């Protein structure tokens, strides 16, 4: 079969996962990743990387389950291997606590994490303002390690990298047989997808190596995630906020809320602050389109809009995107309408 | 009243603390002195990984189970204090793995969130088909002991770096009560055939991605002779061996190899971890903890000794319960010596 040239736009966790999936699975594909930002400057690099999904309103539940399960299982195998420290993937246990009892006490993903159960009364005693909690073991996948590790994997199967900002998909499509669009928040400009919007998140990096378990408030605004180099504490969820600068008021609020949950944090030293813009969208867009140019139909597989679930769903959506690519390479593209 | 404590490991220091807490307002003057040949960071306690966990089964030693639980509850209450980091106390969850089904362990109600391991979890540990998950406490000797010494110094407890040759030596110098917390070398003060060293060697490793302790249990090889991996606040402690009767304080390269290979099989990610150093310590192993009074005759007089030694591999785990019990025995001695003095005291 003739060599198929695939271009992946975006080198964040979704882009590199997608590129690796394609390059490792379809030997007849040459994969090139093109992006302006690479690790350590992608959105995922500042994310704590805890695998914890949320339920999207319009995607069939079975598909969402598959996205999460495949991501979890893929990363669990890495965590259980000698590669774990290189890839920055490891087990993380902790508590998910709620001030009010949630309607969904047992979310769809409870079967896919490890050891999911409700917290005992004794465990809840530590959190007097909270009425309910879930305890489980999930994975933490730190992009600062994982992205370079994925890049190595990509290069090992002949993948190429281009450091360049993409402004015109049509122009690029002239030189490739298929495009995987994993441009995250930038899809707003690249595709004029107004449904994509930033959800600003700020975190503090603190030195508190005695903390081993995560604590997350069910409202998503307060969390403590112990990592390899530091503990990430946060956070904020500011929709349509494009500011990349650190907000000192946000830092103050984060410290206050997290110290209330974990008093020993008062002894922790703040090492730094970071801001990232989650690629928000009502639902992630994992679907295929065709670009019609000069008599060719170029399949464009979209894989963007994961919000705060990029790391969490990266492998599962990459596999989905791979499937869409495979389908498009073997079926006849729709006739161009005149 | 002059109390002389022999030993400055976790047992000696916590005993000094309990005695001070219970009696400093009831006896005046109360002089507490600690005598030891080694202090932190050179004691046995300093090398301990610091995981609160008793042996799986107490073999009928319900007293010890009670003291263990008392210690856990005490440490849990310290967790919310502003001193918790300075004390070296923090929570950590982990896995106890067995090659085949076992009855529930003695500590299942003391720890937090105790449950059986699911099949998917066991799949991560080939060779182990059964086990438990729970959240326990860590108490790092290297941090806890200096904190205890500071606490005691602030309250005028005096420390003397000196190897005590005999109980009589201290009695002759005027000690009213002697408390023997001399751990593995208690035999030097009074022969005890039940007390033996149980040599342990550990490897300290830099592996900050590990956030759970993993203990394996193999009834054929015996407690702690099976691999264990216990992340601390800075380094990870990898073990272990439990060699009864071995007094050798030197690190053994044969043990190192055995420990390392077994641990890497258990946790493959360790293979890329940086090894920092080895350490050897002698656990003061005994069939059960010796926690009792003894009146020793010395010519026409006699003096009181309270023994508090033989805590094996669970000194950190049981220390507070034993310290409080020692304080209770001390109270008994006081009652006998000065019943009038005590009845006048404020409570």
From TrEMBL, chain A:
Domain FAD dependent oxidoreductase: 5-319
Domain of life: Eukaryota
Provenance organism: Carassius auratus (Goldfish)
A Gene Ontology molecular function term of the record: FAD binding
Signal peptide bounds: none
InterPro entries: D-amino_acid_oxidase_CS (IPR006181), DAO (IPR023209), FAD-dep_OxRdtase (IPR006076)
Keyword line: Cytoplasm, FAD, Flavoprotein, Oxidoreductase, Peroxisome
Cofactor dependency: FAD
Binding-site residues for D-dopa, renumbered to this chain: 223, 278, 308
Name of the gene encoding the protein in the UniProt record: ddo
Reactions it catalyzes: D-aspartate + O2 + H2O = oxaloacetate + H2O2 + NH4(+); D-glutamate + O2 + H2O = 2-oxoglutarate + H2O2 + NH4(+)
Function: Selectively catalyzes the oxidative deamination of acidic amino acids. Suppresses the level of D-aspartate in the brain, an amino acid that can act as an agonist for glutamate receptors. Protects the organism from the toxicity of D-amino acids. May also function in the intestine.
Biological classification of the source: Eukaryota, Metazoa, Chordata, Craniata, Vertebrata
Any matching Pfam family: DAO
Protein name as annotated: D-aspartate oxidase
Family of this protein: Belongs to the DAMOX/DASOX family.
From TrEMBL, chain B:
EC top class named in words: oxidoreductase
Catalytic activity: D-cysteine + O2 + H2O = 2-oxo-3-sulfanylpropanoate + H2O2 + NH4(+); D-valine + O2 + H2O = 3-methyl-2-oxobutanoate + H2O2 + NH4(+); D-proline + O2 = 1-pyrroline-2-carboxylate + H2O2; D-alanine + O2 + H2O = pyruvate + H2O2 + NH4(+)
CC cofactor: FAD
GO MF annotation list: D-amino-acid oxidase activity; FAD binding
GO biological process, one term: D-serine catabolic process
Main location: cytoplasm
Residues where D-serine binds: 228, 283, 313
Pfam families, sorted: DAO (PF01266)
Binding site for FAD: 44-45, 49-51, 312-317
InterPro entries: D-amino_acid_oxidase_CS, DAO, FAD-dep_OxRdtase
Location in the cell: Cytoplasm, Cytosol; Peroxisome matrix; Presynaptic active zone; Secreted
Keywords: Cell projection, Cytoplasm, FAD, Flavoprotein, Oxidoreductase, Peroxisome, Phosphoprotein, S-nitrosylation, Secreted, Synapse
One GO location term (cellular component): extracellular region
Record-listed E.C. numbers: 1.4.3.3
Positions of the FAD dependent oxidoreductase domain: 2-329
UniProt binding sites for D-dopa: 53, 217
UniProt similarity note: Belongs to the DAMOX/DASOX family.
Protein name: D-amino-acid oxidase
